[in-house]
Amino acid sequence: MTVYRMGAALLAVSLVAASCAQMAPAGLMAMKDFDPLTADPVRLRAAVAAPAAIAPKPEGVRLDVVHARIGGADRIALSLALEAIPATADGLGRTPRARAGSALHLFRLPPKEIERLRAFRETVATRNGREPGAWSGSLTITAAGCLLSDRLPDGPLLLDTWIKTEQTPDYAPLIQGYDFRRDLAGKPAVEALGACG
Fold it and tell me: Is the pTM of the predicted complex or chain greater than 0.90?
């Protein structure tokens, strides 16, 4: 069996976040039994709430899965594009609520990416079968954003993220209240993020 760790789902806003946000304890508890190698990928959902002036870029929200030997050797990775879905069409548990001034975006794996994930899982299962206990892995959800207006609001730029799997009755919080303004590294918002469209 591979031990997987959940990555922080950060809205990277076209930048790689320099610091790691702390995951919400409730999310860690909800995801303690999650196994990406056996979970139904059709039921996997991600939710991101970000300031309303920012939107996720098309194909900018990704699920990244890594499998490697403990210690990092023999690493294989898969990056999958998630697709946006309307909150009203989800039907897989209560939809999270965005804080005031934020917009909520929901995502799922499209069918072509589900097939790629299933093929990757077969490779991982073969590797695990040959050398049980020798492997570890990670699963991370990231998103790149763009500006819908010419400026961002003053003050903190708060981000909240959730994940939903067949093992969780509702969306489980991952990151709550992460201020990603510092990730802009002092650049003007339009320069750091780019305009949508």
Answer: no
